[in-house]
User: Which sequence fits this backbone?
């Protein structure tokens, strides 16, 4: 039933001139979930979220939010969604309270409701005592929380977050996701875009976008389990050289640097000896080699490499 | 309907806060009209008078002194230097000590008294065409009137004792601007400038700023309709523009003595129609600009030709054909005729109709076209 889905997207496409920013993207998200749209900059995440909010018109395809078609019933959708962009769209010359009042008035919230709601949100955002402060003077993390407060002032059942933690320190990023968790716990459905892989771990469902297309859609654990092959973490001398050497071997699927460590993807556990041999032949000392569980970043890198290989093959054909 | 009104007023309140808290906007709103008024009043509109004059009187006679008195007795020339030769006059002009020179030859007095004809030589510094033209006109007029006087004296002396008068006695009476003050020409122009520049710039900036900050995007996801947003953004600037027009007209009347002869209501009503067009252009500019910088360039691209071709600073009558007719493409041209008509002549609606309809047509078309375009951009 459509009423149990927060978002239903089918074949959603957006072109800018000749450039296809979003290419036939389809997905359904159940209500109450935190859905993370993951991918590098320019993958089409923001364009997708903008179409879902009704800011951009799709070139083709359909999007339904809480059962309402965005293109046909924009007013019904607007009442029920909150949207927070990476720019934290606040009025910098207004005070904290003025920003909240402004959005409250646009949503037609009554004065009585507003009184309690404002106290609640200011408490949530940790802005008590700063109501009269000009927004410009707030730190990035506070502005972020105020932007969230403004976006949910009308208590929407659906919340869109476009790169919500851009330019915010790691501790505040964590606090912010805790807030989102609390909201989700109250039954709010959330869609967030991010290119921080660690943030994706906060999401129940993850969609990976690459080159305008959705290349994977699942919960984080399933994504990791489904990754083909076995991942080894190698601590060795001259990791940069080792990476170059391993990259050109056909029987090694992926090599990626993780700080001074290397993550190497091979077919199965039998390849461990092969790895050790290759490195020792080249005179590289191995301090440690062990099998690790893939992170979402590993999954993403592996998927992207698969995509690229397919792309190359398609090009040759 | 009540909800619409509520949302419009929410935007209006927010715009007021922006205007009041932003020193740049506030100064543009308050200082600019006053500054323009005094700039135009004292720098541009200064009528040319007291042109510094050097005289080399080689004749030293009553006749030559009469000539000098006539010239310096007018407000046009100020006798600042005396010289002994043409070279000396040219040198002073060269050095910029004077703007005009007069050489009276040594035979001047003799020729005048013996009924002959004397040649006097004027030198005019042509660097500044306005001063040069004034000097030329004044020199010619004054010498001609002196010639006539001398001629009549000669006739009376030689003749039969009868009273001689000139066959044609041309008398001029200036209507509407009796003192020929440039300020009377300028104040109405200033009203047009304010309504054009201020309304256009402020509106364009107010909308583009929201686009730059990303708040426009945020507004799109709220239930506000695009026409409500538009109206809410425009209304404060309509009020600001009107306060400024009132200020300009008041300062013009009190300080510069330019009184409004015609109807205030008509002036206000037609200003509102013109304002509609200006605001529309502002919205149009904001539609095609991504940043305030771009909006600024676009605005000057529209405004500079408008000011030159519409006859704000220079009369259109002197413009070459193409420029003259190009002026008819600009609504500000019509509005200038209207404002000058009302303030200086007390013209009424019927008289002004030929200017009103093209202006109204333009304003309404531009306003609605821009607003509709804005809708699509949302």
Assistant:
């Amino acid at each position: 039933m459509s009423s149990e889905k927060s978002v239903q997207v089918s074949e959603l496409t957006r072109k800018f001139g000749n450039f296809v920013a979003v290419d036939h993207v389809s997905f359904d998200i159940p209500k109450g979930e935190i859905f993370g749209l993951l991918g590098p900059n320019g993958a089409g995440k923001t364009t997708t979220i903008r179409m879902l909010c009704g800011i951009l018109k799709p070139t083709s395809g359909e999007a339904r939010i809480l059962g309402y078609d965005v293109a046909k019933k924009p007013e019904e959708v607007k009442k029920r969604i909150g949207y927070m962009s990476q720019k934290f769209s606040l009025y910098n010359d207004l005070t904290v309270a003025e920003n909240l009042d402004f959005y409250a008035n646009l949503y037609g919230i009554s004065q009585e409701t507003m009184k309690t709601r404002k106290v609640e949100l200011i408490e949530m955002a940790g802005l008590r005592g700063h109501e009269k402060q000009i927004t410009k003077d707030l730190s990035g993390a506070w502005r972020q929380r105020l932007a969230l407060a403004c976006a949910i002032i009308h208590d929407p059942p659906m919340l869109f977050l476009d790169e919500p933690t851009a330019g915010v320190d790691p501790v505040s990023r964590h606090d912010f996701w805790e807030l989102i968790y609390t909201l989700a716990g109250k039954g709010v459905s959330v869609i967030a875009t991010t290119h921080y892989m660690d943030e994706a771990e906060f999401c129940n469902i993850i969609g990976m976008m690459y080159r305008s297309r959705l290349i994977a859609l699942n919960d984080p654990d399933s994504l990791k389990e489904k990754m083909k092959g076995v991942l080894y973490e190698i601590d060795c001398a001259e990791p940069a050289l080792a990476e170059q050497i391993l990259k050109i071997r056909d029987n090694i699927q992926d090599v990626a640097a993780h700080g001074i460590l290397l993550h190497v993807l091979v077919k199965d556990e039998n390849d461990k000896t092969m790895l050790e041999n290759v490195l020792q032949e080249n005179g590289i000392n191995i301090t440690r080699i062990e099998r690790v569980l893939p992170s979402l970043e590993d999954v993403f890198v592996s998927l992207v490499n698969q995509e690229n290989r397919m792309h190359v093959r398609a090009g040759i054909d | 309907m009540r909800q619409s009104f509520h949302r419009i007023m929410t935007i209006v309140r927010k715009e007021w806060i922006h205007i009041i808290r932003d020193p740049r906007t506030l100064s543009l709103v308050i200082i600019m009209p006053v500054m323009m008024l005094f700039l135009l009043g004292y720098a541009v509109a200064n009528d040319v008078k007291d042109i510094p004059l050097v005289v080399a009187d080689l004749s030293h006679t009553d006749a030559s002194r009469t000539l000098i008195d006539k010239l310096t007795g007018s407000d046009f020339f100020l006798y600042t230097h005396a010289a002994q030769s043409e070279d000396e006059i040219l040198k002073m002009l060269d050095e910029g000590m004077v703007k005009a020179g007069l050489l009276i030859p040594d035979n001047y007095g003799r020729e005048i008294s013996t009924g002959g004809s004397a040649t006097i030589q004027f030198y005019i510094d042509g660097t500044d065409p306005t001063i040069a033209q004034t000097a030329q006109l004044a020199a010619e007029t004054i010498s001609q009137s002196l010639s006539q006087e001398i001629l009549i004296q000669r006739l009376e002396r030689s003749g039969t004792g009868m009273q001689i008068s000139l066959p044609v006695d041309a008398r001029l009476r200036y209507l509407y601007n009796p003192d020929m003050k440039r300020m009377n020409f300028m104040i109405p122009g200033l009203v047009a400038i304010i309504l054009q520049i201020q309304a256009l710039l402020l509106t364009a900036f107010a909308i583009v700023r929201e686009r730059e900050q990303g708040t426009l995007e945020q507004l799109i996801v709220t239930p506000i309709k695009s026409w409500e947003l538009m109206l809410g953004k425009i209304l404060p600037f309509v009020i600001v523009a009107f306060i400024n027009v009132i200020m300009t007209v008041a300062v013009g009347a009190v300080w510069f003595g330019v009184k409004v002869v015609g109807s205030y209501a008509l002036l206000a009503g037609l200003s509102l129609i013109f304002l509609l067009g200006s605001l529309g252009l502002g919205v149009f500019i904001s539609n095609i600009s991504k940043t305030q910088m771009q909006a600024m360039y676009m605005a000057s691209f529209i405004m500079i030709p408008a000011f030159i071709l519409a006859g704000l600073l220079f009369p259109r009558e002197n413009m070459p054909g193409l420029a003259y007719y190009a002026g008819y493409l600009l609504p500000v041209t019509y509005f200038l005729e209207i404002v000058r008509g009302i303030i200086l002549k007390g013209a009424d609606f019927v008289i002004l109709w030929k200017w009103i309809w093209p202006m109204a047509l333009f304003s309404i078309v531009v306003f609605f076209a821009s607003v509709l375009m804005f809708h699509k951009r949302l």
About this structure: DSSP finds 14 helices and four strands in chain B. Residues 260 and 343 of chain B are 4 Å apart (CA to CA). Strands of chain B lie at 51-57, 77-82, 100-104, 121-124. The first strand of chain B starts at residue 51 and ends at 57.
